[in-house]
């Protein structure tokens, strides 16, 4: 199965062609790295794959769904990590899950369940760390993430579905 397929994706901004008939396929389980100089169209392509905007021409499918028409269904199956993730300046870390769940329409009951599970996981991690056992609770995630590069260098962008 293909995780993402782009066929002849083109994006024009007035006289500027940011993407010119880009075609690619990312199969499930593959990791694709997109590199290029600033202004090459990396972020433009990823924003189209994420469904943030429709390309001028071409087609995009992610998990056999249209990122624009099937945005909600796709959001339940994928996640995006921006290049620079940060909380709004006045939002405290403890307030973030509630604030974000409200945006996503999660009910108070669901939030309560998640908070209980999260607190339980935190206690379990803390307990493991005192015994010297492995403390990492990281799980594989489906993300789109970039990283900052030194000036004059290529900025890599990673996509994993």
TrEMBL record:
<dbReference type="InterPro" id="IPR050763">
    <property type="entry name" value="ABC_transporter_ATP-binding"/>
</dbReference>
<dbReference type="Pfam" id="PF00005">
    <property type="entry name" value="ABC_tran"/>
</dbReference>
<dbReference type="GO" id="GO:0005524">
    <property type="term" value="F:ATP binding"/>
</dbReference>
<keyword id="KW-0547">Nucleotide-binding</keyword>
<feature type="compositionally biased region" description="Low complexity">
    <location>
        <begin position="114"/>
        <end position="145"/>
    </location>
</feature>
<comment type="similarity">
    <text>Belongs to the ABC transporter superfamily.</text>
</comment>
<keyword id="KW-0067">ATP-binding</keyword>
<feature type="region of interest" description="Disordered">
    <location>
        <begin position="81"/>
        <end position="161"/>
    </location>
</feature>
<dbReference type="InterPro" id="IPR027417">
    <property type="entry name" value="P-loop_NTPase"/>
</dbReference>
<dbReference type="GO" id="GO:0016887">
    <property type="term" value="F:ATP hydrolysis activity"/>
</dbReference>
<feature type="domain" description="ABC transporter">
    <location>
        <begin position="19"/>
        <end position="114"/>
    </location>
</feature>
<feature type="compositionally biased region" description="Basic residues">
    <location>
        <begin position="152"/>
        <end position="161"/>
    </location>
</feature>
<dbReference type="InterPro" id="IPR003439">
    <property type="entry name" value="ABC_transporter-like_ATP-bd"/>
</dbReference>
<protein>
    <submittedName>
        <fullName>ATP-binding cassette domain-containing protein</fullName>
    </submittedName>
</protein>
<keyword id="KW-0046">Antibiotic resistance</keyword>
<dbReference type="GO" id="GO:0005886">
    <property type="term" value="C:plasma membrane"/>
</dbReference>
<keyword id="KW-0813">Transport</keyword>
<dbReference type="GO" id="GO:0046677">
    <property type="term" value="P:response to antibiotic"/>
</dbReference>
């Amino acid at each position: 199965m293909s995780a993402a397929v782009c066929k002849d994706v083109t994006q024009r901004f007035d006289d500027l062609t940011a993407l010119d008939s880009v075609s690619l396929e990312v199969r499930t389980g593959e990791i694709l790295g997109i590199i290029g100089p600033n202004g090459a169209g990396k972020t433009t392509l990823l924003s189209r794959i994420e469904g943030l905007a429709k390309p001028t021409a071409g087609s995009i499918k992610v998990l056999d769904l249209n990122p624009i028409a099937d945005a909600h269904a796709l959001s339940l199956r994928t996640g995006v990590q921006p290049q620079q993730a940060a909380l709004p300046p006045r939002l405290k870390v403890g307030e973030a899950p509630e604030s974000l769940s409200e945006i996503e329409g999660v009910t108070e009951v669901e939030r309560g369940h998640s908070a209980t599970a999260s607190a339980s996981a935190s206690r379990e991690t803390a307990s493991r760390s005192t015994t010297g056992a492995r403390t990492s609770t990281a799980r594989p995630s489906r993300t789109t993430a970039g990283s900052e590069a030194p000036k004059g260098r290529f900025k890599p962008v990673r996509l994993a579905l």
